[in-house]
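Researcher: Please translate sequence to structure tokens.
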Amino acid sequence: MKEKKIFDALTEVREDYIDEARTTMLKKQPFRWKKWTAIAASLAVVLGIGIMMIQNGLPYGGSSEGGGAGHADGSIFMSYAGPVFPLTLSETENDIIVDRNISYDFSLPDEESLRVWGANVEDSYTLTNTSAEEKTVNAIYPFAGSFRELQKVLPTILVDGQQLSAKLYAGGYSGDFTGVYGADNPNGSENILPLDSWEGYKALMEDGSYKRNAFSPYPDLPQKVTVYTFTDFEAPEEYDAATQAISFAIDPDKTTIMQYGFEGGEYREDGFRRFSYFVPDNEQWRRKTKLLIVLGDDIGDYTLQGYKDGGCEEGNELDGVSVTVTRSEQILSDVILKLIDDFFKQFDDDNKPAVSQEMFLGAVSEFFYQYGLLSESVRDRYQYGMLEDILSETDTLQRVFYLEFHVTIPAEGSVPVTADLHKDPSYDFACSGSNNEGIQGYDMVTHLGSNLFFNKLTAELISTENIDIVRQNCGFDLSQGITKVELDPDLEHYYLEIRPVE
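Model: Translation complete:
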């Protein structure tokens, strides 16, 4: 109970902070190309070192026996890649009917590849206008992914054979933290499942609230904050783990602390706070950007102390450790944008999130209000205000993106629309002992989130010499040469599980 009181005191963000932010909104931007929480509790809570980088596809609650993700009617996979979604329109058009064909190309990635990994998917539509008037519609194509993998999974949109520049929107992260959400789910839907199955996406998307939120303006972060910036680090060279700590006292009801670049912290019930970091040197993992961000009443007097290592105990002090601390007053969104720039610099060009920093700021702001210190029900791992966690998880956690583009269909005519994309498979981890090791799962949903009427639905396989089919509900038969089948548009989910040919 004592530990919980400490956590609650830290995370009681006053209503006036939240109300202030609700008055200003940031428009979601079009797409542009271009943990440390190891905690020990006693009289104080001491934070250790580490980086919590949740990787794409690693579900919460997964197990070596295959629990945690997969298909209804198909296999359960440890890592779930999300289904292929159908095209939809921003407004319902009863005069438009659609034929859809989805093809999976299992060609080897290159000449030196020994096996198939993933499929190139061509999700094709023929939109037919049955009315006597030309129609221009706003088409929307959803796809699953994360900011980190966006450059890899971003579909190419072609209308009548011509590639279009589509506008990108990002849905919020809506996976699982503590199990199934209840009625207080921030996306407005009850019983949201984690995004480790197609059913999770169904629960997320079927009432339309998730897409509406994705197309709504992002929340802004207009709060005035006091920022303490740490620069000019010095420490005796003979101490590889020399540590600098700043200590002060706050009233948790009036002050909230956010931090960036710190490796340790101590929190007491009486309001005592201590934040520490290894003095930066030439080691790449020691981030030189270090900020304390104060929301609410300022911290007042503080003490700086050097230590021989990360243990900030009496008797472990070290002379010769120094830092310059600069105090400034800023707007929270400006501070976070600077930290996003610092966060992006850790990646090389091939791995850098392929999205504008303004859009990423909007997603981070949304994360603050849904799960972080500006949330009315902050999730446990964000209670200490560690901004690296919010930035990294905004980057890596799964969500649904939407590409928006216009299609003009002549009266009583048809226009082809195609989404070309790479689709990684669902799979079980190597050396897990699972019976599904080496099997790759692919699935698609027929009408989830779509307001189109699908007159005909077909599926086909290309380059099947590289695969064996293990399980499916599509009707392919490679032994009989049946690689194209007609599907029932009313059956909401189809799955295909293959094993690459050795």
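Researcher: Any highlights?
Model: The chain has eight helices and 26 strands.
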